[in-house]
Specification:
Layout (H helix, E strand, L loop, with lengths): L13 H23 L22 H9 L2
């Protein structure tokens, strides 16, 4: 009599399925960020970079000009 060996592999566990979906979501999110953040190709109309707004270091800086004569 010949024995037939079969491997008993259980189906996908809920934890494995959840980890797969989470991994796919992370990869898709990174791909979207990469596409949205891509610079336009050379030769296309490029916008001038926006200048950042000045930053006030502290509230005291707001009152500094009032204290000067």
């Amino acid at each position: 009599m010949t024995q037939i060996r079969t491997s008993n592999r259980a189906g996908a566990t809920p934890l494995g399925v959840a980890a797969g979906f989470l991994g796919a979501f992370v990869v898709a999110s990174l791909a979207v960020q990469l596409i949205r953040g891509a610079q336009p190709a050379a030769g296309t109309a490029m916008q001038a970079p926006a200048r950042p707004a000045p930053v006030v270091a502290h509230q005291a800086a707001l009152w500094d000009t009032l204290g000067k004569p």
